[in-house]
Amino acid sequence: MRDAENVTVRLSDYQPPDYLIDEIALVFSLEPKATIVAARSHVRRSGASTSPLVLNGERLELQSIAIDGAALASDQFSIEPGRLIIHSPPASFLLDVVTRISPATNTHLEGLYMSGGRFCTQCEAEGFRSITYYLDRPDVMARFAVRLEADKASYPTLLSNGNLAESGDLPDGRHFAVWVDPHPKPAYLFALCAGKYESIHDQFVTQSGRKVALGIYVDPGDTPRAGYAMDSLKRAMKWDEEAFKREYDLDVFNIVAVRDFNFGAMENKGLNIFNSSLILADADTATDADFEAIEAVVGHEYFHNWTGNRITCRDWFQLCLKEGLTVYREQEFSADQRSRPVQRIKDVKRLRARQFGEDAGPLAHAVRPSSYQKIDNFYTATVYEKGGEVIRMLKRILGEDAFTRGMQLYFESRDGTASTIEDFIGCFEEASGRKLDSFMRWYEQAGTPALKVRGDYDASARTYRLHVSQRLSATPGQPHKLPAPIPLQIGFISPDGAIIASKVEGDNLSRTEHRAVLEDTEATFEFSDVLEKPIVSVVRGFSAPVTLDDDLTPEARLAQMAHDPDPFTRWEAGQTLARSIMLGEGGASVSELTMALGRELDRAQEDPAFAALALRLPDLNELILSSSSPDPDKLFQSRESLRRAIATALRDRLEGIAKTRGETPFSPSAEAAGRRALKSAALDLLAALGPSQTLTDAYDNAQSMTEAVAALDALGASESPAFDEALAKFYDRWKANPLVIDKWFAAQASSPRHDVLARVERLRAHAEFNLKNPNRVRSLAAAFAMRNPRAFHSANGDGYRFLASLAETIDPLNPALAARLLTPFESWKRFDAQRQSHARTALEHLASLPQLSKNTREMVERTLA
Ligand code: B3K
Ligand code: ZN
């Protein structure tokens, strides 16, 4: 059945539900091609209206439908695309619906499907409607009781949300389990898993003494790689008690890892389902980035138990209510587990890499969008990453105490509800006694504000006046913008690096750092007792998601790089200098930057992870975004020539680092990962000098997956003839491990080698390429289009054609995946006419396909608009 008609859903059209469901009992008789789902719901009318009951449902075969035990006659209901309508139901009744579905042929990976011969589900956002007819909207919250029945030999483990109430054997080799979740929840949090797993188990005792049985279920043979996820889970549970006073609320917490999954993971109540790439890790098969991501995502999904599950969203426009807040909580968790400054810089890099580009193109949308066709297309960097930044700014603006009071008020007053951003912000207004109307603009307006800063020093009066202004460009559908409050964190140093303290009006103390908020379009902040002309940093810690024009001289930036007390500012100064050089905007000389980076190497032992970040130049995507008429080939060459200059000047020391033997035994700690990150950064720079024995040896001597992948990347980037040999060895060693083979695909697709387009075409035809496995698809398509911008934007249009044709092939199988693959097209209008015309042709071809899914059509149309 085709999707419901292409309607645009608008926030302004929100209506509370006419009917509510308080309880639902589900019975699944699991069979791969013919699963029978019997759903019994307690339905009641919520208001006076006697409107029909409209249930959502897609790709369902209705077996029977009855109210209070009496089957409905054919004139009492009708079935339309996407819904089932019961014309005049009573005010309160028991609804029995029996549907038949085919998980084995469900390639959408949404609803109930099979992965590796096991049953699993994905219901966010609107997957439950392909399991049964239901009020599939987050403001309908019901208590779920779920009975699973299946063949015992094929599906020995049966899991669902909540606590296990009962289990036992049935005739004919079948068995059953009943799971009861006492917490009312929206249908998007429903989950079931059934199959043959291997599992590891542990226990967590909450601060009030509740014993929680923890389990992680993986494919047979994978348990040795599940330990880090379990360890991360226990740390996350503890951290949420300490940082947010949030305790877990069931007797069990289970995680199931599945191979075929459309995104990272899913926070189903008591039964998180994870992409196996975010559970399985050990030294040989996972990189440090994998370990870091596992810790972060295990934390993220666990933190959703409060921010998302107990307090859920009223409607999908409020997605950032749970996602932005949970990203913020996850980032704080990672900062506490690892190095706070390094975490902050990584978060900023991610925001800039993924969100700034979105904000600058045709897909720009507000953190809380006001309309959509498919909500799946709005699980974006803006909702997630910028949504997290908005919470961070709220905290900076209100201060730690009022923020904490607001959070606790939110947890207490909104528990058990489906809430809105207004409800959330209202808690902070109440806790702080401040109006936050203008702060709401951060949720409502798309685009990255541009902050302009100019300073005036009056030597005789020893005063410094800082003029700050903001500007927000038009974005699709939002021609005019209003100023939003921008938190600033301001500090001064002298040209020789001394910290300069100063005073502001109304405060007698001289301070080394000031917090201020730009409330309007512009403002002047005045500082007194400033003993010498300062070098100013205004967004220390990246206090707001803005771009900054601060007019500092190259000398001032070099001083910041060397001396600013704020690590973010030190890193940013180096990045800004490098960016200006690569964009040909002048600024510091190459040798000055090289010397400054040399000093980073001198002190690398203090914090290798920071030094590694400092040595990595802004990537090509960032240069494209900063350039008004980007030429990817020129920008690539210019970046290469700076890398070559740096590598030439620092060669001996970089080689020394690149040749250090990997540490054994392996530790995934942040410290050990930091040392490996420095080694990877050294290899990356050395690759700019062309093929070398150092790079080949680095691959052969790698002691961990991090080192192996860094060496592979360097061999690729240096155009080394040893690349193919290393790839062959890698493939041979890891061919039985799909997650590692994903890295093998990605290493080739992301390599800037001259022959990459031919390579990705060959890889697409490779026997191990699998259109039905999202990880494999992304390891080729996303690695190519997002990490290899020169090739993706190649002037002859081959890169665009490759991505569009892959999306076309995947669309009928998995629309959500196909639609997301097209994201890299968001920048197409920034390029020259020739590239634009290739991109337009590729997108228009997609738009012309009559059977294109609603997901992909929406993405294509918005990108073209
Ligand atoms: N909430 C899920 C994402 C679901 C995506 C649906 N299209 C994972 C997360 O953000 O935690
Ligand atoms: Zn989330």
Automatic annotation (TrEMBL):
The keyword Hydrolase applies. Residues 228-442 form the Peptidase M1 membrane alanine aminopeptidase domain. It catalyses: Release of an N-terminal amino acid, Xaa-|-Yaa- from a peptide, amide or arylamide. Xaa is preferably Ala, but may be most amino acids including Pro (slow action). When a terminal hydrophobic residue is followed by a prolyl residue, the two may be released as an intact Xaa-Pro dipeptide. Keywords: Aminopeptidase, Hydrolase, Metal-binding, Metalloprotease, Protease, Zinc. Residues 447-550 form the Peptidase M1 alanyl aminopeptidase Ig-like fold domain. It is an enzyme of class 3 (hydrolase). Its cofactor is Zn(2+). The keyword Cytoplasm does not apply. Its EC number is 3.4.11.2. NCBIfam families: pepN_proteo. Aminopeptidase N is involved in the degradation of intracellular peptides generated by protein breakdown during normal growth as well as in response to nutrient starvation. Belongs to the peptidase M1 family. This is Aminopeptidase N.
